[in-house]
Write a structure and sequence with these properties.
Strand content: 15-25%
Structural class: alpha+beta
Distance between the termini: 53 Å
Shape: globular
Helix content: 25-40%
Number of helices: 20
Largest sheet: 11 strands, mixed
Oligomer: single chain
CATH topology of the largest domain: Spore Coat Polysaccharide Biosynthesis Protein SpsA, Chain A
């Protein structure tokens, strides 16, 4: 498991699976001032994460899991595309404040992540069950020797040691620019860990915070001072062993960490308290629950804690590169080590045909304006911070080959022949629709794509996962063929293309997925298609709750959806009007007269459909006015009226959706309504930020608990996100 695939001293016949490296990248970077995990520091622009992976591959590690904050996953995936291009097994795990099993609800006011120990638990589901794994920090450089020594220890551990802490002399791990956090190790007589404490704000004795470069440590520093997590002052020898976040574990550690985390929660931690991996392992060692070996790894560590640290690290990496320790570009084919070249060849073919990137498209929640976009009326949605990801490469021929998860399987079709539909309900129809739409629009698709589809957007929940897949597919195809289409033009053609799936929708879903803006709702107008961003006032949150009933437009819902559209068209025609905007934009007296005539002349069902579309169109106008004036109480009342209309006049709600709306309102939400086509899917509740916790608790107790509990994706707080992206070049252009 070194660069040659063997380790001296490995037991005879014992050939363990190659270890996984877990990279902790969910920190908030408060001292650095920006997201330092992806900060370019190498001569070729590589981040410390890339150096960690490069060194770990050379040391024999076979898999990589990045633990990130959910809001930053897209940025990490886009930035680390070269790693996947090299054929590495790279996956992501999200560290959240809420965990269905461990932390159903965070304490009020908690925004800080739960700490490094909980981050390891967040990665557990992505780890092989039997193989060892290592843990490192995303903002630290450890060097190849450190990973080789740790891999050696994991390959041939003493029978009773299930954990290892990589250590360096404490003085070698400090910053000249301020205090840092380190695991302070107390070795036992046998050289294993006796106890470990998380030391905070550690600095050389006599060096003040921010003292700068003039405060570099002397040859024989007198000591290191700091404090513990409990606030107690500490002073330790400068040459004492410290763990700077590089660990080796066997899977048996995971249930022990979970047990310690539950004990941590039982002590009612404050909103700033963290579950430190160092203290958890230290306490387990002190209680003799596990034995932890200490692996000295020498003085090669470097870290970026403060902005001033970056220059020193970048200079050191430049000198290492000049000395031949690293190539300028870590992932160029001519400098890849053999494990990378072999992996790339097996997955992607010749190295001269690298993957083109990642197309990412958000879903949406419609705040108000349901079932009226296909009637030409304005709507008010927002792009959702949940996405479909298409990780692709440009194919050498006009073939599309995509793979989903185990529930979806793979498919292929050609672009240079008639694109036939797959059986009804098959997910490939959305990709086929994107391709047909581009071809019908005159875009030459000479090259196809190969890749995988993943994502964080729940399917068939009324959050527009289908349209997000259409958008991501179109962006990937455009990128592969070096073509561009203006965003609103692309939204319009994809809305038409989605009808190949059999859904007679409008254009809202495609437009909001392409043109979403962070922190904003969008007013989307039709005929012509226009998008107007509207800022969402501070202090308000959107709680999204699944009814636990799937609403698949390509499946059984399709007929009901299309029936509603046909009923709207028939009702308008029988009332003698030529367009819905003509109805909605009438003055008050004329509008009342139109509704009265419709009520008298139309059959009951058509009368109700007419009333919903007409009044919902007016509610969108009033909702925009409320949003601009930051009158969110009025906005909430309009949401309530919208849901009542969808329930009573349009008949697309369900008992489960009605229950969610009722529970949310009882718990203090300002407004709530179903979102999406209905017939299942999700509801969205508007509430003040300080009421979101109460709304979530009420939904768990009164809706989800009687139905067997809540799944991770079924209940969440949503933020308004940016629109679709493709990693580089081609794709889509937006007008100002």
């Amino acid at each position: 498991m070194s660069g040659t695939g063997s380790i001296d001293g490995a037991r005879q016949g014992d050939r363990p699976e190659r270890p996984t490296l877990v990279i902790l990248a969910a920190g908030r970077s408060t001292r650095f001032g920006r997201a330092k995990q992806l900060e370019p520091v190498g001569p070729g622009g590589a981040s410390l994460i890339e150096y960690a992976v490069y060194d770990a591959v050379r040391a024999g590690f076979g898999r990589f899991v990045l633990v990130v904050r959910e809001s930053q996953q897209d940025a990490f995936e886009a930035s680390l595309t070269p790693l996947r291009a090299a054929g590495l097994s790279l996956s992501f795990a999200c560290q959240r404040l809420v965990d269905a099993d461990l932390v159903p609800l965070p304490p009020p006011g908690r925004v800080r992540p739960w700490g490094t120990g909980f981050a390891v638990l967040a990665a557990a589901a992505a780890l092989p069950r039997q193989a060892p794994f290592a843990v490192c920090n995303a903002d630290d450089f450890y060097g190849r020797v450190a990973y080789e020594r740790l891999a050696h220890a994991l390959a041939a551990p003493p029978a009773d040691i299930r954990a290892f802490a990589a250590t360096s002399p404490l003085a070698d791990t400090l910053s000249a620019h301020g205090g840092v956090s380190r695991g302070l190790c107390e070795p036992g007589p046998d050289g294993t860990l006796l106890h470990m404490t998380e030391g905070l704000d550690l600095r050389l004795d006599g060096v003040a915070a921010g003292a700068g470069d003039h405060a570099e440590s002397p040859a024989t520093p007198p000591g290191v001072i700091g404090r513990t997590a409990s606030g107690a002052a500490v002073r330790v020898d400068a040459d004492s062993p410290a763990c700077m976040g590089l660990w080796g574990f066997f899977p048996v550690i995971l249930p022990l960490l979970e047990e310690r985390f539950r004990d941590f929660l039982a002590d009612s931690p404050g909103i700033e308290d963290e579950f430190y991996l160092s203290e958890a392992v230290g306490n387990l060692a002190a209680a003799e629950r596990t034995r932890c070996g200490l692996v000295p790894v020498g003085p090669g560590w470097m870290g970026v804690t403060f902005p001033e640290d970056r220059e020193r690290v970048a200079d050191s990496l430049r000198r290492l590169t000049e000395a031949g320790a690293y190539p300028v570009d870590l992932w160029m084919p001519h400098v890849r080590p053999e494990p990378l070249r072999a992996a790339q060849a097996s997955l992607f073919g010749p190295p001269q045909a690298p993957p083109s990137g990642i197309a990412t498209a958000p879903g949406r929640i419609n705040l108000i304006g349901e079932h009226i976009d296909y009637n030409g009326l304005s709507v008010l949605p927002m792009a959702l911070d949940r996405h479909v990801h298409l990780d692709f490469e440009a194919a050498g021929q006009a073939t599309v080959e995509l793979e989903g998860d185990s529930d979806h399987g793979s498919f292929a079709f050609r672009l240079d022949r008639t694109i036939e539909s797959a059986p009804r309900g098959h997910w490939s129809n959305y990709v086929r629709a994107a391709a047909r739409g581009l071809l019908d629009h005159g875009v030459g698709l000479k090259r196809g794509i190969r890749g995988t589809v993943t994502g964080t957007l729940p399917e068939a929940e009324g959050l527009s996962s289908s349209s997000a897949l259409v958008v991501a597919s179109a962006l990937a195809l455009l990128h592969a063929n070096e073509a561009e289409v203006e965003a609103l033009e692309l939204a319009a053609l994809l809305a038409r293309a989605e009808r190949y799936v059999g859904v007679q929708g409008g254009g809202m879903d495609q437009a909001v997925s392409l043109c979403g803006k962070e922190g904003h709702a969008l007013r989307i107008d039709f005929g012509p298609l226009r998008v107007t961003p509207l800022p969402v006032p501070e202090g308000w949150r959107w709680v999204v709750a699944s009814s636990l009933t799937r609403a698949e437009k390509a499946g059984a819902v399709r007929g009901l959806y299309n029936e509603r559209r046909a009923q709207c068209a028939e009702a308008l025609e029988r009332v003698g009007r030529t367009s819905w905007p003509e109805v909605v934009e009438a003055d008050e007296d004329e509008f009342a007269s139109i509704l009265a005539r419709a009520g008298k002349s139309l059959p009951l069902t058509l009368s109700r459909r007419f009333r919903h579309v007409a009044t919902e169109g007016r509610r969108v106008i009033e909702a925009e006015r409320a949003l601009r004036s930051e009158d969110m109480a009025a906005f909430g009342r309009l949401m309530n009226a919208s849901h009542a209309s969808l329930r009573d006049d349009f008949s697309v709600s369900t008992q489960a959706l009605d229950k969610i709306v009722g529970v949310a309102l009882d718990a203090g939400a300002a407004g709530a309504r179903l979102t999406g086509a209905g017939f299942g899917g999700c509801a969205v509740a508007l509430c003040r930020a300080n009421r979101a916790k109460s709304v979530i608790e009420a939904l768990i107790d009164r809706f989800y608990a009687p139905r067997g509990g809540v799944e991770r994706r079924a209940l969440f707080v949503a933020d308004a996100a940016s629109g679709a992206t493709v990693t580089s070049g081609g794709g889509v252009t937006c007008r100002d």
